Hints:
Blueprint: E1 9-11, E2 16-19, H1 37-43, H2 55-65, E3 70-74, E4 83-85, H3 86-91, E5 94-99, E6 102-108, E7 115-119, E8 121-122, E9 125-126, E10 129-133, E11 136-139, E12 145-147, E13 153-155, E14 168-172, H4 173-179
Antiparallel strand pairs: 1-2, 3-4, 3-14, 5-6, 6-7, 8-9, 10-11, 11-12, 12-13
Amino acid sequence: MRDLETNSLWSHIVGKAMRGALKGRRLKLLPSVMATWSEWKLRHPETTLLGMSRTSRAYKGALWKQPGRYVYGLHFPSGHSPAVPLKRLQENPVFNFELAGSAGLITSGARGEGASSFDRIVKGQTLVFSIAGKGIMTDDRTFSLWDTRTGKCFEGSMKGEILSVIPGMISFRSAWEVFFPEGKLLE
């Protein structure tokens, strides 16, 4: 992608200017959500829509038809950048993992549509989550119920707690491996 002000070329995967006047500069990575329009509209009914180019339709179609080509990659503050194959998320929509002292969780919708990533440590406890229904998960310690998309607990002794978000994104597997050759593939 390019910025309009300096025409610098940016990598969306690492948030770094690769060429141009801002070469070497980094953007602050922010958490984002990838969701279907129907899911987004359900949660945010007053939303308006930004028209996307036609290439987004081709990307979406390939994403669900060829999940082996894609990963959900994470950006931990520690600098670790693991990725989980989208195919794995389609098989297991609540994916717990540990890496270099970090306890993470990736959740996804049906068929791997959309994904969110969180830190599993709440009030000093490392929780393990499992699917409990459509869009709902439960933890192994308190059996509280949590929203898989937002990480917010809505029922049980943890009610009101919200899991900390870890920035992540869906990417071509080959691109993730180029930008993060040291990144571990979690399966």
